[in-house]
Design a protein that fits this description.
This protein is of the alpha/beta class and 558 residues long. Helices cover 34% and strands 15% of the residues. It has a nine-stranded mixed sheet. It has a two-stranded antiparallel ribbon with strand order 6-12. Strands 8-9 form a two-stranded antiparallel sheet. A hairpin with a 2-residue loop joins β10 and β11.
Length: 558
Amino acid sequence: MDEARLTRLDERELRELIDRRDVLHALEPQRLHLRWWRPCSVRVLLVTDGGLDFGSGDFGLRTFVTTLLSGTYPAHFRITLAHRRSRGGDAMMEDDGRVERRISGFRFDDRGHFAADQYDQLWMFGIESAPGITDREVRAVAEFMDAGGGVFATGDHAALGRAMGERIPRVRSMRLWDSTPGVDEVSMGGHRRNDTNRRGHDAASTFDDQSDDVPQVITPRWYRTRVGLFEAVYPHPLLCGPDGAITVMPDHPHEGECHEPADTSQVVDVGGASFVEYPPAVGGGPKPVPEVIATSTVLGGTKSGTKDATQGHTFGGIAAYDGHLAGVGRVVTDATWHHFVNINLIGAAGAAPPKDSGFLATPAGASHLARVRTYYRNTATWISPPGLLRCMNRRLLWDLVWHHRVVEAVATTAEVDLRRAHPVLLWHIGKQARDVLGRRTSACQSVRLVLDLVWQEALPELFPEVDPWLPRDLESRPAPQQVPWFDPSPVLDLALGSAVTAVHQAFAEDEQVDQDSLDERLDEVLARGVAVGLERARESAREALEQLDALVQRVTTR
């Protein structure tokens, strides 16, 4: 057999090996990874009404649903699809065995359909505008939210979506659910409409530009943490991806609008039950309130076919409320479900190319779609209750410990007592671990994991500025009384490096891991590792200060 043929056979065998590895990684990771830890189970309820459904048609949500069903570790999203009308077949994805349950004729006040302990998060995609949700249903959703359940809600322009969303506490005040008096900000055809269409491949602006591979560009809200001369800047976690901030969304000729409520002191009465819309922070501090985390831009002169030429302006595209800080569930609202339906993602059925395949028409478009789908997964993660977020963080850290880059970095400490490991070595291990995590998830997730890992030990007292996403009362904050010399980043990296090393040393000899006891064991090892890391950081900082003191004395005594 000639050498060229042997080479082709070798390559084919290697490609088959790659395919087998990828299938195992996706479907049976426990066979591929020795220390695989089953993912966190997140119970997700998706509800829609009217002419929206979960199918393959233009106004179907199948692309979005498939994104969650194929979600990445450490979460396993267990999906229930619910429609408030009678639906079946493709509209309810009956051909997809990954969907756990389907409910037709859904009602929030039916205990067989919905209860606070049945789901971890609720997504509402509304198109109906006539009053439809009852007091009992609103109360059921409010109780779910106050029990820690996460909520996402959206409609479209004018009153589309009002039937479900207008009366739900928090949801009701985080976006517009009807036309505005005077100049309508959420009209379908007026010059002040929220038209985010970007001209694509046609000579003029057309309505169907929403179905091509050209997205709108959004402007994230930036969150800063300043310590001394150092500053870190991040978008909201919803808009943080492995390759940076998410700055694109599907476009549409007439979106709704998200906003920040002017009055956050409301108490909402529903059927005799009262709900504080925005409770105070647990343990004191500034009250968490909704924030517009992304702004969309309307370009002046856009007609999207035959509509009035637009007046250039900006509006709220996404809003988020961190209810966890107040002991309730988190909430996200979006300006429109056109950021989620097939026609704005994979094109319009029967359209001419490239509008028949949407973002998938070009490599650039596919890259944009990947970022939008990251936004979906980020949202599903972020609105999960605190217990599930802790579950995910543990698994992220566990997966991180056994990544090949981290394993090689930790290998140099295998025979060393952690308390005797040099601080610089632990610092380098922590930096490696954070870089790996940032590339696999996002820079935001790497920061969040470190903050949560070290938080209980030191952060509230030592580094009140280091969490960029905490609410801050800037007006009442006293002026600093000393120069902020200290950069906490090395301490965070050193603590993470120590924690990762402790976990590796504790479990390296275990060929099989008891899944049921791993949570408790891991928490104990992490606490010990963090404590050692912080102590080593203190010792290293003391040595550095002593060297600085000696240097200053030499200079000042000349």
